[in-house]
Amino acid sequence: MARDMTKGNITGHLLLYAGPLLFGNLFQQLYHTVDSVVVGRFYGKEALAAVGAAGPIMNILIFLIVGLSMGTSILMAGYFGAKNFRELKEELATSLIAGLILTVVLSVFSVAGSGLFIRLTQTPAEIAVMASGYLRIVSFGLIFTFFYNLFSAALRAIGDSKAPLYVLILTTLVNVFLDIFLVGIIRLGVTGAALATVISQAVSALALFLYIRLRVPSLCLSLTDLKMQTALLKKTIDFSSVSAVQQTALYLGRLLVQSGVNTLGVDAVAAFNAVSIIDSYVLAPGDSLAASITTFSAQNMGGKKYSRIPKGLKNMFIIAEVCTVLIAIFVLLFRHPLLGIFLKEEEAGALNQALSYLVPMASFYFLSGITNTYQGYFRGIGKLLVTLMGTFVQIPIRVAVSYALLGRMGIRAVAVGTAIGWFCMALFETAVYLRCGRIRLADGK
């Protein structure tokens, strides 16, 4: 169901829109977590580490696609807010064709270079073959990842955050079943986990396609609609390229950190992967709230309701910090059973390293609430270069501090580097907001 955020209660819109997104993000994380849990339980820390080693490389490719979808969603939200439904559909068609070309290129590139990418990240030799095999198979599913993300972005642009959630619930259940069947029963190992992921992605893409076809005529494209509009393509590239570069830089930084952790051995890789999965759940609410303020701001910019935007930003800061602090407290209190989901008790070396990393990470989660809210706000008002620069502030600091301290602190160094990176990013974004990032009500610039 579409949601017009240019009128009505601001806090209500932000929460009601973010709610399904939050559950969607949690199921998205569960979708990816199942692979790690199942292979870790059936095949041990080596299989868990292999999936973890392939993850950052795969995420770079996925977030190139997500960057395109993110830019498209911002433009479509503006057209929806302005009630310009013709350009709304033209933007979707243009992004569909351009994104499809990009995805095919990325898929071929990843399949061909999977072994090289795994070696470049200094993945331990004993898990390199499993990691490259997992990456190669999952790369074949990028086409389905693209369709799901584009259709989800289009629905979110018109305020419908529920349909992607329902589809994610369905495909997560499919992925759980397939993981248990292919990994636990047929015993295909890491290969089975990769196949389960690809099949589940195909189900999610098909389900959203059918939903739009049957229930959302404003987004339903006919063959005659499938044309690339030159002007819209340029605008889409301007928006999406910044988002894609930002997302790629973010995950390239994580890949560099992963490479440093890989040099510490299999125990460290398994510990890092386990805590990274927990991190992904903790940060999911912030990502959802950021997406909410993005759509809210973009719709109100398009509808010229400029006075509503700063109110939305203020409310979102409060909501984000309350959520983040409560989740951090939960993680600190239940850190042992949470890590026990991924690591067995007898794997004491990996478990101890995971604990030493998780505690400082959880202590700094509150900083992510600030940075995520600013990122969502700046995206929504069209200042994507600010979001890119914020990432460029954070990532080099995170990587440099992590590498400088890895030898002395082990993987705890990553927590320290991440916290310092978040802090510097928050300072930068606050300075930009105070100087030139506020909405001027007279012209909306």
Report what the structure shows:
Helices cover 84% and strands 0% of the residues. With 445 residues, the protein is mainly α. The chain has one domain (10-437). The two termini are 30 Å apart. Residues 441-445 have low confidence and may be disordered.
Radius of gyration from CA coordinates: 21 Å
Largest sheet: none
Low-confidence stretches: 441-445
Number of E-state strands = 0
Q: With helices defined by DSSP (H or I, 4 residues minimum), what is the helix count?
A: 15
Strand content: under 5%
Distance between the first and last residues' Cα: 30 Å
Class computed from helices, strands and strand pairing: mainly alpha
Q: Can you give the mean pLDDT?
A: 84
Helix content: over 70%
**How many domains would you count in the coordinates?**
1
Order of helices and strands: HHHHHHHHHHHHHHH
| Rough outline | globular
In short:
With 445 residues, the chain is mainly α. The chain has 15 helices and no strands.
Annotation keywords:
445 residues, mainly alpha, globular
Summarize the helices and strands and which ones pair or pack.
Layout: H1 10-43, H2 45-81, H3 85-120, H4 125-139, H5 142-157, H6 162-185, H7 189-215, H8 230-262, H9 266-302, H10 308-333, H11 335-340, H12 348-363, H13 365-380, H14 384-409, H15 412-437
